[in-house]
Write a structure and sequence with these properties.
The complex is a heteropentamer of chains A (247), B (245), C (292), D (322) and E (379).
Chain A lengths: L4 E10 L2 E11 L4 E5 L6 H8 L7 E6 L2 E2 L5 H6 L2 E3 L12 H10 L5 H6 L7 H10 L15 H12 L6 E5 L7 H18 L2 E5 L3 H7 L2 E6 L2 E6 L1 H6 L1 H8 L2
Parallel strand pairs in A: 3-8, 3-9, 6-7, 7-8
Antiparallel strand pairs in A: 1-2, 1-4, 4-5, 9-10
Helix pairs in contact in A: 3-6
Chain C lengths: L1 H31 L6 H18 L4 H25 L7 H23 L14 E4 L2 E4 H23 L1 H11 L1 H6 L4 H27 L6 H15 L4 H21 L7 H13 L14
Antiparallel strand pairs in C: 1-2
Helix pairs in contact in C: 1-5, 1-6, 1-8, 1-9, 1-10, 2-3, 2-4, 2-8, 2-9, 3-8, 5-6, 5-8, 6-8, 9-10, 9-11
Chain E lengths: L1 H13 L11 E7 L6 H20 L8 E7 L4 H13 L5 E2 L4 H14 L3 E3 L14 E3 L4 H16 L3 E7 L2 H16 L3 E8 L7 H10 L3 E5 L2 H13 L6 E3 L1 H4 L1 H7 L7 E4 L8 H14 L5 H20 L4 H8 L3 E2 L11 E3 L5 E2 L2 E7 L2 E8 L5
Parallel strand pairs in E: 1-2, 3-4, 4-5, 6-7, 6-8, 8-9, 9-10
Antiparallel strand pairs in E: 10-14, 11-12, 12-13, 14-15
The chains are: A alpha/beta (247), B alpha/beta (245), C mainly alpha (292), D mainly alpha (322), E alpha/beta (379).
Chain lengths: 247, 245, 292, 322, 379
């Protein structure tokens, strides 16, 4: 079985400071992989290298066996890789429903059918499903900018699933979300994973959230993987504790 | 409230836009001591500093420094009151010389005639600054830059220094040097409130610790007790600490 | 060769004026992200302020020049900062661009309607004596322009680098947040840059008007060239603006003499496009590193 | 507003506009119809609005900047004038104007988009002045500063449009079609993608939206609207010279769209209306209208950045609520 | 919503009706350059024509009716001039004044011909009168008349074999340049440099260097007044010691005021000048200066004589009718003894071309001196 996502020997440095030093790992179909590590350990840089936002100095990224290293984000997305961002990234002037349709439209038909075809690019029922699934139905006509922070986070996550991606990378989905909303979000993500088998890679600082959500964890420190395994094991790993609390 | 507190926070709420980061923080920071703030990312540590220093508005609650209510103070008034702030990351003016970067720490000095003397003292204390006085700040190493930032903060003879993640990006040797400088400052009577990722190392040189989670104070205790507290690992690696009921 | 030197000196004298306008342009950009499309008019107006003082109120010439500089600082500095830029500073670049375009129309039409549509002679401090060295003839006035402009630039550089206030201004431009943390009065520093911009524009105006006459429409090309000079030299650098201004002044003359008078205006613009494509930070600029 | 309502309002406006120059006394309505001048101004307004719609697509919807719309209008106008005088039918000239400006838009935008955001604006600024220089100096083809005289108004299906009312109806027809097309684009997934790249290009890119391509499309489409407006401008005025295609008029196009309400569908019409009609309304102040216009723009920018249409929508919404 | 939108639209369209003038007055629209590049020119014309109208009204008007001038700005843009013309013609005026820029005249002359309204223009481009309109009338020589005179001057008096031409690249300058190049060729005079400059150009260093290098026997300078002044200053600075020959815009008082000493020694042909050795013109200059605090130039004179042309023609025709006035003006000679405001005797031919005396002059000691008066072409 080949891995859905294959990361090999990624290296990236900024102005002489090595942010990521030779990171390799695989992500398998249906997994929820968490990537954790203290501040400055290189998680975001690694993420951006995988997603084409940054060009790695070395190493390759493969999706379904296809080399996608340094592919532009829009191309990567059309190959079935979605992502969310650490900071809020919805389109405030579009309605909730339009945000969802936008998130899927570039995967439907050709550019011409998108011009001459249906307004919703045939994504109406898909959007409906997401609205219901993420419990945003009553807000569908609101401008996304008028939603509360937590609701926007839900919408942001929902948008990642509109394109039918098989691999979704979530960058700090829990950041700034209050406790009740957090439970909601986790439960929704688990449900999607269960029902559709979508694979997740999650960067997250909220350990409680990440320990409960993920099936497997990778721990980064100073740009390297220092531990890997089930959440319960990782939590007990002295190397991990040291990385977090210092020596 | 501790009678020797230099800074106290009373149910402070603050945040950015729609996001609330501090959900009613209360704490008392001891005079003449080093206090380290620890907590997982997103707990609101840096926000706490910005709020205390007046860069971010206090929504509700009260901040008291040295006995005076400073809740609505602007940074300039905080400086005048005797607080300096060394933020995270690189905060020098890259195109100015080391000397001029240092000098800018004295902008708020009420008596400008003292500036030259103060700068002289700083250069005596940190000889590196004198050696490199005319170099562009951007040519300094990471550790040297941090030293310069600390020296710049000290120019005003603050009573309290807020220092955010001083060790980040520094070599272990340099971290030791920075920490020893902080200890020296404490001996000189400066109170220090520090955020530090490297919790164990920081607590080891600290007198007190303050544990934040979800924008609230979870533990306020001596550094020793916190170091020994088994809940700390749990705090960082999941499980969280229930708010004291 | 003589021709070339002649062109070079003329170009430098004009270029020094462009540099004065371009420096202010970059200062405004650095401290308040203001792209001032009325910069050319800022150079046009002060001469008329001096003319008003002289002809309407009978103020002596030298006093009029001083008054014009002061009035410019008030009108094009303080009022511009608080009335035009103030309400828009948080709305981003585009609304400010639109507003300054409107301001340029306002200034131009005001001078035309309230003073005169005709070109005006403007007295000069320097006699129009000619000096000829090795076949290159230069008027004293022209040398004066070059000298005064260069002295102004040197003084400005000295002020920015050599005085504490100047360094506080630099600090504000390089990192306003840290400047604020150190207690730099950021708001006041921003106002200073507006005052300096107005003063530089006034200097340029009073230098250029005796040679090229004062007219309400003088700002049109000047503004465009200051803009081009600032980008070509490096938008975030005072020294870039100086180099850009001098370069374009010289280039314009050389292009007119050796390429085509009809297309002389095209040369700086082609240079602009090339710089944008191949060295977007400008010839002497540094890359913008400031996040957000 | 629902699609049906918008279409209804659009149609009603169209009928009203079509009747504006007609003497209705014959059918018992006490309305004398606009005279030649009023009709001419209305036609000019429509032509200006087409070009302004293009600017609105670029600036208001896609969040880019253009300082060259007048140059694109000029390219369309010169192309049409030159080829129709050489005997090419107007329809072909019109299509060619749109196509040429579209292609130039792509060619201009492609390199500029490799660099920072405002740099597209700077490149268009340079392009605008360069075009103007060519119009002025290449006398053999553009007539130089003397311009091109006696540009014939075309026939439409054998129906000569020499008469001012007929030509007005012809322009009105084309404007309606182009308005509809833009309305369609803006409501289609393309329009959504344009909005997305205005609001958050990074996020849009991560959702599969090819930001560079859509930006180019918006810029080229908007420029093509300029070219087609120019194609109508030439036979309307029957004379062209370089002055209306200089940098100044390009800047005025920006002002027009912003004051009307950028990113709103009716904004360009209101903005063009103000730019074309305001001098007429302020005739009593003679030359001072530019002063008043400038002050108006500055006040609008400071207090109502969403433009007149944005302001009106807000007032109407408030009224509806109370 | 629908009703409101329609009401708004109705209001907007309603704004397009201009209020009608007072019925008892004759309204003459002046379609002139009040803003944009030609603002200076338009202001002069406006002052001149206003002054004439005041005088005419004070002495009883035209055929017992008072004249009222309406000033419409073309913004120096032919498209806008055309719109303004359309509006003016809708009111069926007896005459139109302006535009002054040849491009704007070119864009509008067909309309006045169609409407059969006489159009008194300020434009000097040669081709304006060659387009078959029977309704345009010049107030000054067209370049088709003045350039042959200059070419003769260059050949006969300056005795130049090689001439350099420097012109401003607008309809005025370019038209003049095209005309002089043609005339010079016809006289076997070589054009050794042909230099285009911009309106509003400040720095003429490069242009003067080119001229120095051209080694011409004389330089023909055809720029607007301000640019003429800037050019002369630079020419003097660089010691350009060739004869500088020009037209009205090189020798005018305005140029002398602006250029100072540098204007001394320039020579040329002057079609219309306030400094002409004609008492009526000098009188006019004084009145104008007293009233507007600034010296008039030839555009002021052009504006001034326009109302007198209409007055004379209307009185000859005996009625206030555009077609009749135009018919009267064609082939008409107006003399100052009957109509003092015409200043100098002038005759219009069938194409609207003006014929009157003109002058050769030069600038001496900061004054324009007329050295010779050239007679009318046709007696």
């Amino acid at each position: 079985m080949t891995a859905l996502l294959e990361v090999r020997d990624i290296e990236k440095s900024f102005g002489g400071v090595q942010a990521v030093c030779g990171v390799s790992f695989d992500v398998h179909e249906g997994e929820i992989l968490g990537v954790i590590g203290p501040n400055g350990s290189g998680k975001s840089t690694l993420f951006n290298c995988i997603l084409g936002q940054l060009v790695p100095d070395r190493g390759t990224v493969r999706v379904n066996g296809r080399n996608v290293t340094a592919l532009r984000p829009s191309r990567l997305n059309r190959l079935g890789v979605s992502r969310t961002f650490q900071l809020l990234q919805v389109f405030p002037e579009l309605t909730v429903r339009e945000n969802l349709i936008l998130a899927g439209q570039e995967h439907r038909g050709s550019r011409l059918t998108r011009l001459f075809g249906a307004r919703d690019a045939g994504l109406g029922s898909e959007a409906d499903r997401m609205l219901d699934f993420f419990r945003l139905r009553r807000l569908e006509g609101e401008k996304a900018g008028s939603l509360s922070y937590g609701q926007q986070k839900l919408l942001d996550a929902a948008m990642a699933f509109m394109s039918g991606s098989r691999l979704v990378l979530l960058d700090e989905p829990a950041g700034g979300v209050n406790l009740t909303m957090l439970a909601d979000l986790r439960e929704r993500l688990e449900a999607i994973n269960r029902e559709t088998g979508v694979t997740f890679v999650v960067i997250e600082h909220n350990m409680e959230f990440v320990m409960a959500l993920c099936t497997r964890l990778i721990v980064l420190a100073e740009g390297r993987i220092i531990a890997e395994g089930a959440p319960a094991d990782v939590r007990r790993d002295p190397a991990v504790i040291e990385a977090y609390l210092g020596h | 409230m501790a009678p020797d507190a230099i800074l106290t926070l009373d149910s402070v709420v603050a945040g950015y836009g729609k996001m609330t980061i501090l959900n009613g923080v209360s704490a008392a920071i001891h005079r003449g001591a080093i206090t380290t703030v620890i907590g997982p990312n997103g707990a609101g540590k840096s926000t706490l500093f910005k709020t205390v220093f007046g860069l971010l508005g206090v929504r509700t609650g009260r901040v008291t420094f040295n006995g005076a209510d400073t809740t609505s103070f602007e940074p300039r008034r905080m400086l005048d009151a005797g607080v300096c702030y060394v933020p995270q990351g690189r905060n020098l003016f890259p195109e100015l010389s080391v000397r001029h970067n240092l000098e800018l720490g004295g902008v708020a000095l009420s008596d400008t005639s003292r500036l030259a003397g103060r700068m002289e003292e700083m250069m005596a204390r940190f000889p590196m600054l004198r050696e490199k006085a005319n170099a562009q700040a951007s040519t300094l190493s990471g550790g040297q830059q941090k030293l310069l930032e600390v020296a710049r903060g000290l120019l005003l003879e603050p009573k309290l220094m807020l220092i955010d993640e001083p060790s980040i990006g520094l070599s272990p040797l340099m971290v030791q040097e920075v920490f020893s400088i902080l200890k020296d400052l404490r001996s000189a009577g400066v109170s220090i409130l520090m955020i530090e990722q490297n919790a164990r190392q920081a607590l080891a040189i600290s007198d007190y610790g303050l544990v934040l989670e979800q924008g609230q104070t979870r533990i306020e205790d001596t550094a020793q007790n916190i170091l020994a507290d088994p809940r700390i690992a749990q705090l960082f690696l999941g499980g969280g600490l229930a708010p004291a009921a | 060769m003589t021709d070339f030197l002649q062109l070079l000196i003329s170009g430098l004298a004009t270029g020094a004026i462009y540099a004065l306008a371009a420096i202010g342009f970059t200062l405004l950009w650095q401290t308040s992200q203001t792209i001032n499309f009325a910069q050319g008019e800022f150079v046009m107006v002060p001469a008329f302020l001096a003319l008003i003082a002289m002809r309407w109120f009978g103020v002596p010439f030298v006093a009029s020049l001083v008054l014009a500089i002061l009035a410019s600082m008030l009108l094009l500095g303080v009022a511009f900062r608080y009335v035009v830029v103030g309400p828009l500073i948080r709305r981003g670049v585009l609304p400010l661009v639109i507003s300054t375009i409107a301001l340029s129309i306002l200034l131009k039409e005001s001078v035309k309607d309230f003073y005169s549509a005709e070109a005006q002679t403007f007295p000069t401090l320097l006699p129009d004596t000619l000096i000829t060295v090795a076949g290159v003839s230069v008027s004293l006035a022209q040398l004066g322009v070059l000298a005064v402009a260069l002295v102004t630039i040197v003084l400005l550089q000295w002020f920015l680098a050599g005085t504490r206030t100047g360094r506080q201004m630099q600090a504000t431009a390089q990192n306003p947040t840290v400047a604020r943390i150190l207690g730099v009065p950021v708001e006041r520093m921003i106002l200073y840059t507006f005052l300096i911009n107005a003063a530089l524009a006034a200097m340029a105006s009073l230098l250029v008007s005796p040679i090229y006459l004062a007219k309400f429409s003088n700002g049109e090309t000047l503004g465009l060239i200051a803009f081009v000079a600032a980008i070509v030299g490096g938008f975030n650098q005072v020294r870039g603006a100086i180099a850009g201004g001098l370069l374009i002044g010289v280039l314009d003359n050389l292009a007119a003499a050796y390429v085509s008078t009809a297309y002389r205006q095209a040369i700086p613009l082609i240079l602009l496009v090339l710089v944008i494509l191949f060295r977007p930070q400008g010839l002497l600029g540094r890359r913008e590193e400031r996040a957000v | 507003m629902s699609a049906r309502n918008s279409l209804l309002i659009g149609l009603a406006l169209l009928v009203l506009l079509a009747l504006a120059p007609v003497d209705l006394n014959d059918i018992g309505v006490p309305y004398p119809g606009l005279r030649r001048y009023g009709t001419y101004i209305l036609t000019l307004w429509l032509v200006t609005a087409i070009a302004a719609m293009g600017v609105n697509l670029i600036v208001g919807y896609a969040g880019q900047e253009t300082l060259a719309q007048a140059a694109f209008v000029g390219i369309g106008a010169y192309l049409t004038a030159i080829v129709t005088k050489a005997g090419v039918p107007f329809g072909v000239a019109f299509a060619a104007s749109g196509l040429l400006t579209f292609v130039i838009g792509i060619a201009l935008g492609f390199p500029a988009l490799r660099v920072q955001k405002h740099y597209l604006a700077f490149v268009t600024l340079a392009f605008s002045v360069l075009c103007w220089l060519v119009f002025r100096n290449e006398q053999w083809i553009t007539g130089g500063v003397m311009g091109i005289r006696d540009i014939e108004r075309p026939s439409f299906l054998g129906w000569p449009l020499r008469n001012h009312i007929r030509f007005y109806w012809f322009v009105l027809g084309i404007t309606s079609i182009m308005t509809f097309v833009l309305w369609w684009i803006v409501r289609s997934p393309w329009g959504r993608a344009f909005t997305a790249l205005r609001e958050n290009p990074l996020r849009a890119e991560s959702l599969g939206v090819d930001v560079r391509l859509y930006t180019l499309l918006a810029f080229a489409l908007g420029s093509a609207y300029g070219g087609m407006a120019g194609s109508l401008y030439a036979p309307l005025v029957e004379f062209i010279d370089p002055s209306p295609f200089a940098l100044g008029p390009s800047l005025l196009f920006m002002l027009m769209v912003v004051i009307g309400g950028s990113g709103t569908f009716l904004g360009p019409f209101v903005g063009a209306g103000i730019a074309v009609l305001l001098p007429e309304w302020l005739r009593a102040w003679e030359t001072w209208y530019l002063l008043i216009y400038a002050v108006l723009v500055m006040v609008m920018m400071a207090f109502f950045p969403s433009g007149i249409v944005g302001l009106a929508t807000r007032l109407l919404a408030r009224k509806a609520r109370s | 919503m629908l009703r409101k939108t329609l009401a708004l639209a109705g209001l907007a369209i309603g704004g397009l009706w201009a209020p009608a003038g007072f019925a008892q007055d004759i309204v003459i629209p002046n379609i002139i350059e009040l803003s944009g590049g030609g603002a200076t020119v338009g202001a002069m014309w406006k002052n001149g024509s206003s002054m004439a109208v005041e005088e005419i009204n004070a002495s009883g008007g035209i055929l017992g009716k008072k004249i009222k001038l309406e000033f419409i700005d073309t913004a120096s843009d032919p498209g806008k001039a055309r719109a303004a013309m359309q509006r003016a013609l809708d009111d069926k005026p007896v005459a139109i004044f302006g535009p002054i820029y040849s491009g704007s005249v070119s864009a509008t002359l067909k309309m006045t011909a169609d409407a059969e309204v006489p159009q008194v223009i300020g434009g000097e481009a040669g081709n304006l009168t060659a387009q078959g309109s029977k309704y345009i009338f010049r107030t000054s020589f067209g370049q088709n008349v003045s350039m042959p005179k200059i070419a003769n001057y260059l050949r006969d008096i300056v005795k130049a074999k090689n001439v350099a031409v420097v012109f401003v690249n607008n309809d005025f300058g370019k038209g003049g340049r095209d005309a002089i190049v043609k005339e010079l060729a016809a006289r076997d005079i070589k054009v050794v440099a042909d230099i285009s400059t911009e309106a509003g150009q400040a720095d003429f260093a490069a242009d003067v260097i080119k001229l120095k290098g051209a080694n011409a026997d004389a330089i023909f300078v055809y720029l607007n007044e301000e640019e003429s002044a800037r050019f002369l200053r630079e020419a003097r600075k660089q010691g350009l010691n060739k004869p500088l020959i020009g037209e009205t815009t090189l020798l005018g008082q305005k140029v002398i005021d602006l250029a100072g000493d540098a204007a001394n020694g320039v020579k040329g042909h002057v079609g219309l000048t306030v400094d002409a050795p004609v008492p009526a013109i000098q009188e006019f200059g004084k009145k104008y200066e007293a009233k507007y605090k600034t010296k008039p130039d030839h555009n002021g004179v052009k504006g001034y004589i326009a109302p007198y042309m209409i007055k004379a023609a209307a009185e000859k025709a005996g009625k206030l009718d555009g077609k009749a006035i135009a018919a009267a003006l064609r082939g008409m000679t107006i003399t100052p003894d009957k109509v003092p405001g015409i200043l100098i005797e002038a005759t219009w031919d069938d194409t609207g071309e003006i014929d009157r005396i003109s002058f050769l002059g030069e600038v001496k000691d900061g004054k324009q001196v007329i050295t010779e008066t050239l007679p009318k072409l046709k007696k």
